[in-house]
Amino acid sequence: MARAMDLDTGHYPILFLTIGSKYEVEDLRAFQAEMQPIFARRQKYVLIVKTSPNSYLPDAKMRKAVVEWWKSMADDQARWNLGTAVIVASAPIRGALTALSWLFTSPTPQVFVSNADEAVTWAEKMLRQAGIEPPASASALRVG
Question: Domain range holding 26?
């Protein structure tokens, strides 16, 4: 069974998180636990998030859980995350994510893009601005 949230660290310092069409609070907690070794590296990174084309609009309870989840990692995000590019094909989902950002301002730059190529280009730019060379393997993410 595929995981609702799958973190690929194989292109560090670019992390690639794939989010399935539906996720639960337990999935958020599992991802939070996966991020602890990343934060322990004490190195800057960029996160690319790929949402499912058939993602759903989270209900109020889930939106609250997402906000609390992000708040719980805000200090480490601010310290180590250079920014997050979120790939969202659906206009309604982009709208929902924008609404979430009104409830909780990300501690790092965030951009919503329509495809993986745009996300990787943005991630590479953020790394270079921080004086970090993007991994050569990043091109493999462009088709993700």
Answer: 5-143
77-115 pLDDT tens trace: 899 999 999 998 877 777 777 777 777 677 788 888 889
Q: Please count the other Cβ atoms lying within 10 Å of the Cβ belonging to residue 142.
A: 13
Q: Where are the beta strands (DSSP E) in 12-137?
A: 14-19, 45-51, 81-87, 110-113
**H-helix or E-strand containing 114?**
none
Of 85, 64, 69, 65, nearest to 32 by C-alpha is 69
Q: How many domains does the chain have?
A: 1
Half-sphere exposure in the Cβ direction for 38 (13 Å, CA)? 26
User: 3-class SS at 19?
Assistant: strand
